[in-house]
Amino acid sequence: MFVAAVDAISRWSIPLIFVIVLGYALWHRVDVYNVFLDGAREGIDLAVRILPYVVSIFVALGIFRASGAMDSLAASLHPVLSIFHVPAEILPLMVIRPLSGSGALAITAEILRRFGPDSYVGRLASTMQGSTDTTFYILSVYFGAVGIRKIRHAMLVGLCADLMGFILSILFVRLAFGVK
Amino acid sequence: MLNLVWVGMILMGVAVAAARGHMDLVTSSTFDSAKLAVETVITLTGIMVFWLGIAKVAEQSGLMERLGHAVRPMLRMVFPSLKRDSPALNSIMMNFAANLLGLGQAATPFGLKAMTELQAENDDKETASDAMVTFLVMNTAGVTLIPATIVAYRAAAGSVNPSEIVGTTLAASLGSTIFALLLDALLRRSRRFRQRV
Fold it and tell me: Residue B126: what pLDDT?
């Protein structure tokens, strides 16, 4: 029932937005097509502006991962995290989640395949994946796009919030489903 | 701090590759990643062009204004430094709405538009304003009502109940967002991080 609702919302929300926005505009006699094109041009400009930032992050992350440095980092964090009963399998996800959205999704998919979506690790990975976002990527692309160089406390707060998200994920998954 | 993380990742990568004797992987992954980044931006360009077109239509027809009216008082509580009729508030609203619905791809164009409008109101063009930091911190904490992608992945992996994690996800993201807002409110006045004008 709930799955059907989530499925229906993700299937219907975008078409519904189109119908409502375009219908409303036509009703109010807006020059819909030309106004659409005006807005669309802004998209090209933004894309050109964010390109260097996206390349810089992808390259740094690519080197970090391909060299094996990420696995080493995850392994070195393991003793600390095992004190808090954080399963070792979840570590790569916690390291990569703030850095890369598609990278995190790939790790989550792998965890779901290997341990099953209804296991403790599977539920934990799902909750962590859904409840935080790619801090490092968002900060550099969004600030970069408008030319901000001094980001003040944004990175610090963003990473602390990710950590809090992980802690809360562990807490809530344990409360709701136990550790099996 | 961005400098530190970015250079740190590259230097650590090169060092580990040197220790393990597979420096060739660094070279090949550099060019593969650069190519992947451009492909990602090109995909994103199509999405941005489309959503910003739709947004312009919603703006011109007055629909955005009507929707914005209801949520504006709440947004002004979170962004006390913004002017009452700041155009950025509309884009921020659209960005949050897209994130809540799990439409991550629609969230990016509205987020970038909001940043452009916040920058127009910013006195020091090189330093992030209070509102910018709050806006991005909320984005990175990522409140989602419908984590559609992960529910789909769980269903594909054969879960008995793919959407059972919606509750835990919402609780965890809500908790971390509130934590982030409090931490931001605390730090933006601190001697080290406050904006100097």
Answer: 94
